[in-house]
Amino acid sequence: MKEFRKSFHNWRYRHKPSNLDHPIEDDWSLVGMSQNTKPLAIQEDPQDANKITNPRQSSMWISANGTISGGRIRSSGHEASDTADAQRQKTLHSLRECLLGGGSIAFSGLDVVSQFAPVPYLRLAVTAASQILAISQSILKSRGDCRQLLDRTSTLLIVITPFADRALPNQETLESIERLAKTLTSIANDLRTIKADISFRQIRTAVKSILTNQAVQDRVNECSSKLDWAMRFFQIESLAQADFDRVRYHIELRQDIKEVAGMGAPLSLLRTYCNIDVLDTFSAATNLLESNLNPAPSRYDSSVRNMASSCLDGTRVAILQTLHDWIFSTGSEPLQIFWLYGLAGTGKSTIAQTVSEYCAAAGNLGASFFFSRDQADRTDGQRVFSTIAYQLAYSIPSFRPLLLAAVQADPEAQSSTLQTQLRKLILEPLQEVNDAPCPVVLVLDALDECDDPAHAKNILFLLANAASALPSHLRLRILVTSRPEVHLDKSFIYSISPVVSNVSTLQDIEASVVQGDIRLYLQTHLRGEEAIATDDEVERLVEMSQSLFIVASTAVRFVEASFGKSLKARKTQLRVILSAADSYLYSVAQGLRGPSHPVVTAGPPPYLSLDTMYCTILSKALPMEPDIIREERLRLVLGTIALIFDALSPISLDTLLRLAPETVLDTLERLHSVIMISDKEEHSTPIRLIHPSFPNFLTTQSRCSDARFYIHPVLHHMRLAMLCLDHMNESLSRDMCEIGCLPTLNAEVKNLDERLDSVLPPHLRYACNYWASHLARVRTRVGTEKDASDEGVLQLAQAIDEFVRQKLLCWLEALSLLGCLEVAGSSLKMAEQWLVEIRDAKDNTLVIVQNAQRFVMRFFEPISMSPANIYSSALPLTPKCPLYEEYESELGSSVSVRYGQELGWDPCLHTTQVGSQVFSVVYSPDGDHILSGCGDNTVRIWNSRTGSEVAKLEGHSKQVTSVAYSPSGDRIVSGSDDRTARVWNAQTGAEAATLKGHSDKVASVAYSPNGDRIISGSHDMTVRIWNARTGAEIATLKGHKNYIRSVAYSPNAGHIVSGSDDRTVRVWNAQTGAVVTTLKGHRDTVASVAYSPSGDHIVSGSHDMTVRVWNAQTGAEVAMLKGHKDYIRSVAYSPSADHIVSGSDDRTARIWNAQTGGEVATLKGHSDWIRSISYSPNGSCVVSGSHDKTIRVWDAQTDPVVARLEGHIMPVTSFAYSPSADHFVSGSEDKTVRVWIAQTGAEIATLKGHSEAVASVAYSPSGDCIISGSHDMTVRVWDAHTGVEMATLKGHKDYIRSVAYSPIADHIVSGSDDGTARIWNARTGGEIATLTGHSNYVRSVAYSPNGNHIVSGSDDKTVRVWNALTGAEVAMMKGHKKLIRSVTYSPDGKYILSLDDLREHIWDAITYLPAYSAPDGKLSNGFLGSQLRWEAPWVMYNDLPLGRGLAEGFKSLLESIVDK
């Protein structure tokens, strides 16, 4: 430590202010070198100690004997000592001196510090750090990404080098150094990979280079972040072991820091020493945990719960005693969860508060989480376990370092699944705690107010299973309170786990006991020293309370409200309440509920007394005389407080509702008994509801009997949605925080919080986050108020139109800066659903919203890192769509794509990196999740919209090859190579059963349609049927002769289908197990089978590369679908049965028309085999799982039109693909020929020269030339690469209708309205022959595949064949009754196809006799049925495209073939 202090003084001596030429903090290299002096490299070989290997890459050079030279750094001037200690001290001193001065060191292997360090792993740590420096400097030479990393590494060396001249430290410090060394080694390896990858960037295109640069920057930043984490944890862990002398020296050192700071010391150096201040270690740990766990303010004593009260002494004695006995029970097998439930107002939260306070005083409270609907962060179920972990760190001191280590190991644990959070942040650290209080109590209050019912159930499930898994010495006790909601009823609670000890219902407690407690409560508050109420008045209030504590407490708050402090005023308030009580008691006595309530026959409704109380209190908030304006304002304010999704302060509510300042406070002045309101001086404190029963009363018409106070939820949500949109349309703008157009990471923006506070105040943040949530609750029709609703809906649609067209990207900017871009996806989805339902929304607005969803999904990561990426990379790379066209002007001088811009969205919606091979994927019945079976032996659940992992189910010992959901979605079944099938709870991930019986791998599993049965197919050649509830085996089906690959139930559960390696598909009777039929036809393994939704057909996919469709009743093969080039692994029907999807080892998924067998789309993107494919429940998406370790979600409704090409200004008459299919050419009536890129649809050339319409175009066989025939009576030859015209062929006397090249490209043939066809020399342009014979226009000409013949079709209704060498007519075929539009040869040359306006003919090309004629436009299922198919816009013959003219007529004919 003295050496450190000396280094500071030496640094101060070297850097006097008068010698500073520039601010030190602005220069990362602070060593005083000349411009030509650069860092030297440290040599590992002592023999090379005197060599300077790279005089431009290092600021110092350390030889093997510890000598330091180079630049202006010296060893401090002391005489050299022959002792090892002196040598070590001199070396360490100079090393620190260089580092403190800001110099950089590049190590090439030798670690001068660790050669005499007594500390294990220190050599590895310093060596790794030196390698990080060396690689970082190398990267920095070619780019500017590593300055921060260099600075942090140098700082780290300052921190760790003192251990080299210290005695062997304690075990904890040694472990810290070991962890640090391993982390540094990992970082060094990552940097080596980055360095190797950089060289490949030079060959990328301009746009891709930009994205690659960002990717490299991100990877370097990740290394820097990882290094920062390592430093922070090493500092905390090592300094926690410091002794008194270190503290004393550190205090002295801080004085030196203050002095150095005044002289301009490096900021990173000052930060380092301030961060490692041992006196602030506890604070540093607190800040670290708080920043990474993001705990919610949900503790029992949180400041946001300042009105929370505990039970009055003498009340709730019985239930509190029961809870006390349960908490401190010492039984051998104590039950660990106590669920307390009851109606709103029965006192659950008060009891939970009392238990929390008692246990905290006794030292037994581990954590508490009090949910509340009016505060977003206290309804977020995703934050429960991270909040509990944070609180445990301070209630159990020994838990804190274990939690720190867990966060260090996984800094993203807080954002992972609930199951992972519980395991990593709570269970695993608790396993190592031996000194925890006994028992440890957790309190979760108002679980029913969790934002997501699934989260609430999952939390309880996970806690139940966790409680029984912890060591017995911890004696965990979990108190949970909630209302009896549908998702939290008794049957659910009892089903989750045997560790639930009590399910106590507060309303079941004897009325006399509850009334006694309420009486004591009222007497304490109203019969105290001032005796506000008489005993009789107290009894009237007790009777009115109906065993609801909330009625009594509300009455007391009303009497003691802030505006009635005097005794007289409070008695006046009491009389108001007593009047309400008398009215209530009279209504009960008369058997009535009041003006809006029906007759009561079995006692008063449970909330009648509370409703009466609320009506009375609200009435006192209005003047005696009717005042429509005040009533409307009261409804506006109350409705907003009741329906908003996050609490806002009075000033924010004033702004959101466009009210004058302090209007909200004035409106609520007399409502302190039901609403928690701050003083007028505290405008920043959010307004909160005292009890959730109040908003329920306001928004339920049957309870709110006074129309002055009733809040119509739909209409008020409409009003709030409109206000949110108006504020965003007015206030959002581009670059609101004035960060600039360069992509600066949000994390690196200076004073970002202050900037956001100035441009995004709370009401605008609320609007950005919740406008769509309000919109989603606006039904387009609201019964009797239809007219008002329609008008409001129209105005709302107009506001959305303005927002979508003008402020959409600004809104994404705001969400990015606020760190909540995930809101965009769900908001846009809600907006889309709302727009679909209304008629007044502009169609283009809906399309832009849909485009925006794709935009956010595709560019989520870059936008979330920096809003500038919206304009610098995301928008330029957006396909040409309405969204792009609307915001194209925003690009300005930003990067733009000049050529090759996509014309449509990629069908892949998003890709999820799984980390292991994916064998099976399937959607949940509600479509919200995707289930996968993986090669790492796990079953995983994913969010289907975002791709984030929801849960990981572990239990199988080998890879999971098949997964399926139960029809209800609450259970999951998985099959594995470990020969078992397992059943899981879909909500909690808990394993429910293991199905054992198979003697080999389980390849496929499925549920029956009613969920009662599970079937499994195995490599043991059997299908087994299991009871889904008990796991018992019901039947074994035998018959296959080889491995079974796939099984499925029929929709009516009457049959089971299976596919096997024996090349057969078998249909079984599901009741008897007998084989019904065996479907034969496949020539290889049948890998997948499925029923159509109606059960009429079965589809199978095979290793023979075909998909076959079978009649499920007869077993006859209906169709065979060809197209895949490798094994087919998976097939599935769409829910509508219109399509079939297949996945293959050729890395593609294909969608087929289930009626015609035509291929609709090919989905490309996977880089390895596709093992599984499935439709979403609504048929809009397809999910695929692959060996490339990814899951991809595809748009299943992909338009078969890949691109719409715009450029020609008049109709297109002809087009043709190049031989390589990379390009195609088009001719138009606009007199031009245009060349396009086939993949993107981008135009690359316009060929001009013709003076009339271009009627026909064609490529030469080599693709080097293009020919065009025109109405200007010329044929022109063009260079296909340059677009230069090479020749003009003249001779025809009328329009040219058709042109074609010979197969060897030596000749060109053309057909004309002059009734002739002409043959030209393709090289010289000379005319070779004129083919005469037709008596009318020649519409079409073509060469035979061997080039020996030419066929022509004419308006004279004849087809003629000519000798291509001599020009002699070979044959004339008659039969057409209409003008012939097109002729062509089949690819094998055996047939000639001709098409007129009504009829199609196929001719034998040898005999020239009709091979087939289609009367009435119909083709029979015979001749070319298996070779000919329609694939718009072509007719395909043996997978080759024929003429487009034929295609138009053949489409209907081919469809008729499939029909027959």
Descriptive report:
The protein is α+β, with helices and mostly antiparallel strands. Helices cover 34% and strands 23% of the residues. The chain has a five-stranded parallel beta sheet with strand order 4-5-6-3-7, sandwiched between helices. Strand 15 and strand 16 form a beta hairpin. The longest helix has 34 residues, at 206-239. It is elongated and about 130 Å long.
Give the radius of gyration.
40 Å
Catalogue the unreliable spans.
1-82, 91-117, 199-212, 237-281, 593-603, 782-788, 1415-1460
| Global geometry | elongated
Alpha-carbon distance between the termini? Answer: 93 Å
- Quantity of strands, as a count: 60
Average pLDDT rating = 76
Please give the largest β-sheet: 5 strands, parallel
Tally of helical runs: 35
Q: Which structural class is indicated by helix and strand composition?
A: alpha+beta
Query: Looking across the biggest beta sheet, what order are the strands in?
Result: 4-5-6-3-7
Specify the helix fraction band.
25-40%
Beta-strand share of residues = 15-25%
